[in-house]
Each structure stands twice: as structure tokens, then as C-alpha cells.
Amino acid sequence: MNLFSSAPVVGIEVSGNAIRLAVLRRSRKKSCLEGLFRVEAPSDHPEAVRQALAASVRDHGLAGMAAGMVLHDARILHRAFALPKMTQKEIDAVIPFEAGKAFGVRQDTRTVYKINTHYRQEGVPKIEVIAAAVPVEAVQNAVSLMESAGLVPHYLLTIPFVQTIAPSADLILGTEETVARLHVTRVGVDLIVTQGKHFLFSRMIKKEIDFSQFEGASAVDVSTPLHEGGEAMEITTVAEEIAGEGDDPFERLCTEINRSFLYVKQQHKKSIEQIWLTGEGGNVPHLAEDLKRHLKLPLTVLDELPGMTRPPACAPAPREEGEYDLPVGVAKSPSIFSTANLLPLDLQLRWRKRSAQRVAKIAYAAAAVLVLFLYVQLSWKVHHDRLEVRGLQQGYAKVDDRFQGVRRMFQAQADRLLRRAICQGLAPASIPPEDVLAALSLYTPDPVVLDQLVVQGGRGPFSMKLSGWIVLHDYSGGESVLDDFLDRCKRSGLFRNVRGRLGPGADQGESGRVRIASAVLRKIRFEIVGE
Q: Rg of the chain's alpha carbons, rounded to an integer?
């Protein structure tokens, strides 16, 4: 699972018997085209279109991919209205009321909306909302077409909602001029008028001309000027004249376009300043030149898909570039949860569940990595602390051993000095018993514990008697332990002669010749007599 790029999405546009597919992979920084395909069904019958789309999906290995589609239907209505800046919850509550006023009460109609832009009017923040009323039948047919072709419906949009995310959006919306976009298909011509980022008008002009057999419009009289008084157009007179003449299809098309331009001028006080031609318009011979000459307006044929990185296999002929503008735009749709998505609620909930599962997987993986990282960090810290404690214990043991040796050395020196001082009359002729005990505690081996020790003073300065109990934890080395204890007492300098009696059953002897008669005693009685 790639966390930085999404799975490919298939954008679909169906116009008559012509089908265009754009396979796009989106990422954070850029989008990459992975395929551009064009298919023509034998006829524009729904079943023929369904079979052609299914065959194209199967041949190009697109089955099971998420798909988005743009709707062309003359019954779709669009309105734009301004609202004060408000929260999303407030917008959701206001939209049904505003849509009801804009579209009236309609049966079997799905209403969706999109916040088109934020702006300020006289210092007051406002938002512009585009709403669409779409017949439920058109939505069901589009969903059925995608599912029968083996694709997974992802979103369904109408042209005004696609235009803001199409590759040409920056070119069209980046100017403050009033721009008319003519998207030519075999169903008809989708006309959208914008000024900068603001939506003004949209209309689908039904099929008035068979563009596949278009040979040019040389019969049209273009000598009559459409500009009067420097205005972008004056179409009232021309529209009336054309409406009353013959049945030339090109004339009827231009008449409908002029009527739309006149409506924009009357309603919004805006004159069309330039025209952008997309879709199949660039492929129809002489269509761009004749429209430009007849409408008397600057006209540009969109023949590139800006902002797209793609392999050479995805490069169509230059005159076909504009045909893929809307399929690429619908494939770039940023979110399944857009309020402009016409997909039925049950399918959107299915995608929400998939998205939640994907987020849960990512969160689980991130949590697992975090737990593993914390476990490694904690384990290393515990191991490091153990090593540090072990080092401190070893260092303390070494220091303590040296310190005990130094203490014993100084105690022995002090005992000898005290003995000499007593002999020379420089100190009292008696040694406090507690000093004797302190001295013995330094000389007592670690395995030996003195218990119930009694010190009795004698007649002379070094005449005393010690009695008590010796507790041995390990009987196997009892002889050497007792012998070492008596030897240390003798070397302490507190006693001239050291003799010991080790309880009943033990032999009597001097230091260095002590034996234990019985090794079963946990406590051994002893006496030391010093002279």
C-alpha cells in the first residue's frame, strides 16, 4: 500500500457514440496520466455504447478500477447564488431553500451543490455556490453504465463542477475577463460562462448539427457586423434575422449561442470577451474559424493538457488534446465526499467504509511501528540501565573493598598507638569494651557473625575475657573461618595471647590450631581470654 499516491482512477466522457477514457494516478504534488483511450460505438444506442465501453475496459485491463463520469444531459439545470459566509452546517440547511427558489418544485430530481469561490463584496465576506438539479434517471443510467462495464462508480459530476478541476481551469479561471467555454460533443454543445472564478451561466444546446459531416459554413452571411458602439456583441437584431431565415443548422447553433450571450449581458451586465473551444470542436474542419468569424469574438482552441506528466504512449494527436480535457478533469476530482457528487448515497457510504478501512489500516500500521519503536527504545533503556547498575555495583564493590582495607589498616595503627600509649602511661589503663567490639568488627571475617558478645575487663590493662556465640552459614569451611578469626584477634594488638574455647565437644587450642569436633551446630559457643 502506497501512502503517497492513490490508486488509478478512470475518467469517462460519453457523447453520442464517442467514448473517451483517461486513466490518472494522483499524488500529493502532481498527477500522472497512465492512459488516454478513445472508442466509437457502432451507434449512439445505449446498449451499443455499453458494449463498446465494456470491451474497451476489458481490452485495456481497467476492470475493477474506480471510475468517475461527467454527465451531458439537456435536462440538467445549474444556478449560482451568493450567500453570506457561514459554516458548513448552515450551508447544508440553506441550500434546499435556495435550490427550491432557483429550480422550483421538481419530481425525481437530485440536487447537489459546490462552493465555487470565496470573495468580498463591499468588505463583507461571501461565498458563491453553484447548485445543480439533475434527473434521477440520468444518474441511474450513468451508474448502470459504469457498473456493467466492470468499473466501480466513484463519483458523478456535471460540467460546471468539472470545469474547476479540469487541466484547463487555470487558463480559463486565471483571467478576470468574461469567458465563454464551448465544449462540443456529439450530443450538443455545453456552454459555460465565467468571469474569473465566478460562475455566471451554463446551458446545453441540443444537437443542432451533425459535426461528423460538417463541411464548413460558407453559406452564412458574416458581412453584417456584430459589434456596435464598441460592445462585445449586439445580438438582438442578428438573432431575429437568423431565426427567420432558412434551416441552416450552423445558423441555428450560432443563434442559440448569441441568445445565451444576450441573456448573460441582460442578467449580469457582462459582455463576453473571449471564447474557449474544447471537446470535438478542434476536430471539426473550419468550425473554429467560422465561429470566430460569425461571433466576432477572439476564439482559442484548447489543444493541450497543462500540468500533466505522462509517458509518450499517452500523447494523442494535437488536434485531439481538447477532447480529453473533461475526462482528465473528472479523474482529478479530489474527494468522493464532495457535495457535488451525484453518486447515490448507498454507493457513497460504501466508499466511506472503504476509506475508513484504509485509514484504519494506515493507523494500525503506524501504531504497530510506534509500539515497536517504543519497545525497542524501552528495551535498550532497560538494558542500558542494567549495564550501568552492574558497572556501579562492581565499582562500589572495588571501592568498598579498598575502603575496608584502609579502615582496618588505620584501626590497627590506632590500636598499636593506643597500646604503646597505655604502656608508657600516656593513656588510661583501661580500654572501653565498646572500643574492643569496634576493633573486633573490623577483623571478623564475612562468614562469621558474633552474637550475644560479652566483654569482661580483667585486673590488668589487657586482661579481659570475651564470650558469646559464633554463627556459621557454611559449615564446610568452619575450621579455616574460626582459625582466621582467632588469628585476626591476635594480630589486632589488643591481646598478648589469644586462646579460644569453642563450646562443648570442641578441642582447645591456640590460634592456628582450632578444630571443630561437630559440624552440625549452627551456633558455636566461644571464649577468648586476653592477657
A: 51
CA trace torsion 495, 497, 503, 506 (10° rounding) = 150
Give the Cα separation of 344 and 349 in Å (integer): 9
Quote the crossing angle between the two packed helices 345-423 and 433-443, to the nearest 10°. 120
Q: What value, to the nearest 5°, has the Cα angle with vertex 179 and ends 18 and 264?
A: 100
pTM for the model stands at 0.63
CA–chain centroid gap for 519, Å, is 76
| Of the candidates 330, 276, 272, the residue with the CA atom closest to the CA atom of residue 303 | 276
Kindly report, residue by residue over 478-511, the tens digit of the pLDDT. Answer: 566 666 777 776 666 655 566 655 444 443 333 3
> Do strands 66-71 and 448-457 pair parallel, antiparallel, or not at all (unpaired)?
unpaired
Residue 134 bridge partners (DSSP): 110
Where is pLDDT greater, at 113 or 436?
113
- Using DSSP bridges, classify how beta strands 188-195 and 109-121 pair: parallel, antiparallel or unpaired: unpaired
CA dist., res. 273 & res. 36, Å (int):
32
Helix residue ranges, H only, 296-344: 325-331
| Residue 361: how many other CB atoms lie within 10 Å | 11
Chain segment 401-441, per-residue pLDDT in tens? 777 777 777 766 766 665 666 555 555 545 555 566 566 66
Q: Is 346 left (phi over 0), alpha (psi -120 to 50) or beta?
A: alpha
